[in-house]
Amino acid sequence: MNRFVLGGLATLVMLGVGLFWWQGRAEVERKAPPASSAPPTAPAALPLATMGNAEGPALPEADEISREQRRFGRYDRDHDSRVSRNEMLSTRADAFRKLDKDGNNLLTFEEWAVATVDKFGHADADRDQYLSKQEFRTTAPPPIKPKPKCICEKPKKAEMKKLDAKKALKKAEKHQEEPLALPSA
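RE: above sequence
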């Protein structure tokens, strides 16, 4: 009896799979583009692409956004051209999580964000709890001086004199080894 039930169930599954496969092929054929009835164009009939000295229109240029405008855009989440206190403090949440190494939340957000709140308070000149673009500009971090690519120690004056003396000796030795050129007659 179990064999009949399993056989019937397998037959129904196979019929279902076949039905879906058949419908899927019909959908693909329905959405396929129509075959082109035009004969392929011979290469000789194609127009030449040489236009002489013709020039196309100038390429559009993107406006350069200053570093300060990009920074303002990152803080201004609702794009209302002003930064609220909450918008400015929202960027501090990730840094707070980084400071809380053991995850026990003993460092309160208010304690940690005192510097940012003070920074916001000093920058908000008109005390409207929003920073305009001019006010926001005062919160910019100082520019970072690029580090030198190599750490080279400058030679001391005594070492420089020794190097100059060695170069002078080498030049003198070269001049002594070279034969004198006689004028040709």
